TrEMBL record:
Gene Ontology CC: one annotated term: cytoplasm
Single GO MF annotation: nicotinamide-nucleotide adenylyltransferase activity
Annotated Gene3D superfamilies: CinA-like, HUPs
Pfam families assigned to the protein according to its UniProt record, in alphabetical order: CTP_transf_like (PF01467)
Name of the protein in question: Cytidyltransferase-like domain-containing protein
Regions that span the bilayer: none
Limits of the Cytidyltransferase-like domain: 222-384
Organism of origin: Blastopirellula marina
Amino acid sequence: MKDTITHQLIRQLHRSPWRLAAVVTGGGSEALSQLLSVPGASDTVLEAVVPYSSVSLEDFLHFKPTHYCSRATAQAMAMRAFFRARDLQSRISPADLDDMHLVGIGCSASLRSLRPKKGQHRVHIAVQTATSSSIASLVLTKDSRDRGREEDVVAALLLNRLADATGFSDRIPLDLLPGEHVDETTANAWPTWTDLLLGKRTAVCVPKAQQDASLDSFSGVLFPGAFNPLHEGHQTMAEVAEEITGHSVDFEISIENVDKPPLDFFHIKSRAEQFEAPQRCWLTKAPTFLDKSKVFPEATFVVGADTIVRIAEPRYYQNSTQLRDAAISEFTQQNCKFLVFPRVVGESFLTFDQLNLPPGLVNLCQPVSASQFRMDISSTEIRTGSF
């Protein structure tokens, strides 16, 4: 009976317009096998990847996760898979790309193996579409199943999550033991967030009442950051920047980032909800300051001393000082400036006069003195509870 429902669900998927890319870290590979074993898989599966080693997963994600089996890692995997699906489908059907029927799946699992595990046997499955992000987590009762039975549960859960995201009603029975429970949650996108994700908008303004605001309404002063979370230090920097420039400060969050995983709709929602009128925050897909300067020409960027140092580092320009200097020249052509705040970095308080920056970049900077601003707080310290 269970096999019949599984095959029926997969056949429905293969006959539908949905196209998917999936990435699983070993646990969850049974679901891929089932998807590929039913005729018609070539019409559905664009790519199936199994980054089994930690190094392989880091290559796929483009960063080293804090925990390899976690909700956050599964979410990042699903978002990367979604972008991968979009890239592949755009090359297959460049004139007929159906963004609204693409799905990325990320499965991060720690299941029974030859060596006993100290932690829980668990699985996190994230599904990303153009309109929603979802995550399901399940802790399996330890030492109550062999590896094959654990894989069966994970496969059924993964296919059920896929069915939920794609609108199919069939569900595969889960062989859960007493006390086991699937924790499921979904974040639905604003229509403007979907447009941003798909590249149909350059920027989206929050709060929600201002989501259709034009870039023509940009204040001229931009404070980019992750704001995870937005804290008193950020607010004070914005106030000081407003006093110095005489303009209100708009915040900016890129849903793509050079150093960090792409933001899914859970993260976008939690970040966006921090801003209330009259504050404004622009959501973009501009991960570098060179990208930001093209979206916000003639902007004065509010940055910390550590950020201006990163802007000067050749590693962000393919390890080329020539490309770095070309970017600085483009900042100049775009008439962009940098308002540079002192910042605590490690055990040191870093001020502008301590920095070794290229002369062209120095000419674009206006330092903020320690007497104008000092606040020893960071989002990282707040997240880790060390502040």
